[in-house]
Predict the structure.
Amino acid sequence: NSNSNSNSNSNSNSNNNANKSINSDTIESSELMIAAREQVSAATQMADQALTVANRIRDPTRKQAIVKAADGLRVAATGVLTATRDVCADPTNIVSQQNLDVAQQTLDSSFSNLAQAVNASATGAQKSKIVASSTEALKSATEDSISSNLMSLAMDTLKQLAEFSKITSSQNAFDHVSKVAIQVNNLAAMLRKRAQETTDPVYRERLINAAKVLRDRATQAKILSAVKVASEQKDDSRQVESAANGLTICLQDTLSLLQEINIKDRTRQTTKRTAAIKRVMTVWMENSAVFS
């Protein structure tokens, strides 16, 4: 029995390790993680190139500013990689999503600080061109994560709707459903706005449909709840509860859609940041003679 238990535990541990390995492999091979690693690579190259510039600068204060900013960019890039891995591991975790937003903002700031530190050491007529190119690249790389905000609202609405099952009074149920309906309508409006902004026709249609279904389901639940209050009769058919459950399923489907779009958005944004970093490096290389 002892040997049997030992073998069983060993097999169990092996299976658990295999699952962890599979999960890890899936995370590391995801489009977002691949894009994040490319971004770290570009940021590291930018920091190395900045240090090369620093070695040619005579002013110790400017040289130190570049070294400090280069170190800051390395740290920020690593922070983004860690936060991205957490999001890929659990896209439903809003805290992880928010942490990645903060990490990306830190990277944007570090990118800007290093570009400014290096550009400040440029001399001659090319300096204005270098500064303009860097500013344009920085602007193109900065973008808000709209889908994360939508995910947060959808999850909060689901939490509010879950409280419905605890309510016994018809009037209280109506008040609660009315409150949830307002949130759902706000979410639907944001989904329609997001649909207008997307360039992907498939996602545009799915977002529009999600907004329509959510609005219809919320209206249905509110009407049935109002009828129940007005009739003052017991809801033996459980129509209101059924409508609330239907709305819950629609919200869950919408959340899954938003998670999918969120990963696509983040991958695209990360790729844009990498391209911006490379553009600035190209400008520095083409004008290396002006740094002194």
